[in-house]
Specification:
Layout lengths: L1 H23 L4 H11 L7 H21 L7 E6 L2 E6 L4 H13 L3
Antiparallel strand pairs: 1-2
Helix pairs in contact: 2-3
């Protein structure tokens, strides 16, 4: 009895994987990952229906993704008095404090 259930589960899994591979074959790597995430909870019988529903959005997502601005947090600007100073966030706090002490002491 248990062997029949395991065989049936394997057969259903094989059928699902074949359907997914057939549907996802024309997509590129990134689009395929997105579509797999969307379809992972979909029943096998509705895979094609949901694929058709999402494919337009997934294909166009790649186009829109290229035009987005990337957030850049590598630099910060410190203002002290009349001049602006740019320092990297990767510098240690010790380097910042030494630089500040030197500028306060008038040492360049």
């Amino acid at each position: 009895m248990e062997a029949k259930k395991e065989a049936k589960l394997r057969e259903e899994l094989l059928e699902r994987n074949e359907s997914l591979n057939k549907l996802l074959s024309p997509l590129n790597k990134d689009q395929r990952k997105i579509m797999q995430k969307l379809l992972e909870s979909t029943p096998t019988q509705k895979l094609e229906e949901n694929f058709k529903k999402y494919v337009g959005k997934v294909v166009n997502e790649d186009f829109r993704h290229d035009k987005r601005n990337v957030l850049n947090e590598t630099t910060k600007i410190e203002y002290d008095g009349n001049r602006g100073q740019t320092s990297k966030l990767t510098e240690s706090k010790e380097d910042d404090s030494v630089t500040r002490l030197k500028s306060l002491a008038g040492i360049k």
